[in-house]
Design brief:
Layout (H helix, E strand, L loop, with lengths): L26 E5 L6 E5 L12 E5 L2 E2 L3 E6 L5 E11 L2 E7 L9 E5 L5 E11 L5 E6 L8 H4 L16 H6 L8 E3 L11 H9 L3 E7 L22 E5 L1 H12 L4 E4 L1 H13 L10 E5 L14 E5 L6 H10 L6 H14 L10 E4 L1
Parallel strand pairs: 1-17, 3-12, 3-14, 4-11, 14-16
Antiparallel strand pairs: 1-2, 5-6, 5-8, 6-7, 7-10, 8-9, 9-10, 12-13, 13-15, 16-17
Length: 360
């Protein structure tokens, strides 16, 4: 299949710039895969689509305040860093702006959240083929410990506000169950859940378990290859506990449904299913890297239902949900594109702070 097969038109004013007043205040488009029928609901209706014995699995990765600001030594010029990958304590690959002006050996001082010198400095050691800078930080034992004081939540590029993230973003661009820290972007399907929603789910007899997948910059990386099979998929670290593995096996054995909250959860589950192709999952702790790229046609092994947000045109996430709409077939692409057309017509809010979509 071709990248352009997954294009759709989206008016700019439907890209959500702020979250709804309440976490559970979003709308929820419900798509029935078997018939293609679409229903317009509220996220507060989510509980009516799950049953006792079902298993809800969420990604509990926490977003780190990975955007740093500072000034170059000597010139005082402003600069910005985005932490991308930790190589060792206090040494990171970073996106650097303005990157072209910074030469190897250049040094800079980081600001705190008030824009004042933090006492932490950095030095550009090298560059890689992607244009990222290898930065060594000094003035701190471990910059991880300082991020809450000097860093900002890295909102996605399509949230185009003129100002920095505010205190609301630091709370709302994070799930209520987030832990441990490690993501550069939120697993956004989980943003709709509040503590009360999760309590109601459990009270209904639905099990709730977690996986961890630290979302990286690859989430926003565009597909540049014309043919999907030529796209180099990004790698992300994941973990799944023995308790979650047991819960999956027990749910499947009982004939109940595994409901994935978000595409990142799907990637973890289907990665493990592809690795363990016979029998139930080994009931042990699982961890590793996943580069799984799911696009039509694809047969899903573990996931029965999916709650997700609305995704960017021609993105790997749109391709994944197209595969889920009609497992084992390429027809899910048109199902999803038709559903997205209806979402646009009905003025749904798109992307991270937008509305939700439940695929049954």
């Amino acid at each position: 299949m071709r990248r352009t097969d997954f294009h759709y038109e989206l008016p700019d004013d439907l890209i959500a710039q702020r979250p709804p007043n309440r976490r559970d205040g979003s709308r929820m488009l419900v798509l029935y895969r078997s018939t293609g029928e679409v229903f317009h609901k509220s996220f507060t209706d989510f509980g009516s689509f799950i049953e006792e014995g079902d298993l809800l699995i969420l990604n509990n990765s926490k977003v780190i305040p990975a955007r740093l600001r500072g000034r170059r030594e000597g010139t005082g010029g402003k600069m910005e860093l985005l932490l991308v990958e930790e190589l060792e304590p206090n040494v990171w690959w970073c996106m650097v702006k303005p990157g072209k002006r910074l030469r190897e050996g250049s040094r800079f001082d980081l600001n705190d959240s008030a824009g004042q010198p933090s006492g932490i400095s950095g030095e550009l050691l090298a560059r890689n083929s992607e244009g990222h800078g290898k930065i060594r930080f000094s003035g701190t034992e471990d910059i991880h410990r300082n991020l809450e004081e000097i860093g900002e939540i890295p909102l996605p590029p399509y949230i185009g506000r003129p100002k920095k993230p505010d205190s609301d973003d630091h709370k709302r661009y994070q799930t209520v169950y987030a832990n441990p820290a490690g993501s550069l972007a939120a697993p956004t399907a989980g943003l709709h859940f509040c503590d009360e929603t999760l309590a109601a789910v459990r009270a209904k007899g639905v099990r709730v378990e977690f996986v961890t997948l630290h979302v990286g910059l690859g989430t926003f990386a565009p597909v540049k290859a014309d043919q999907l099979e030529d796209h180099p998929m990004h790698s992300e670290h994941f973990e799944m506990s023995v308790d979650t593995a047991k819960a999956i096996n027990e749910t499947k054995a009982a004939g109940k449904r595994v409901i994935a909250i978000g595409t990142t959860t799907v990637r973890v589950l289907e990665t493990l299913a592809a690795k363990h192709t016979t029998g139930p999952l080994p009931e042990t702790d699982h961890h590793g890297q996943t580069k799984i790229f799911i696009y039509p046609p694809y047969e899903f092994k573990l996931v029965d239902r999916l709650l997700t947000n609305f995704h960017l045109p021609e993105s790997t996430l749109l391709m994944l949900i197209s595969a889920f709409a009609k497992p084992g077939s390429i027809e899910g692409r048109e199902t999803i594109l038709d559903t997205y057309r209806k979402a646009v017509e009905n003025r749904y809010r798109f992307f991270s702070y937008g509305d939700s979509m439940l695929i049954l």
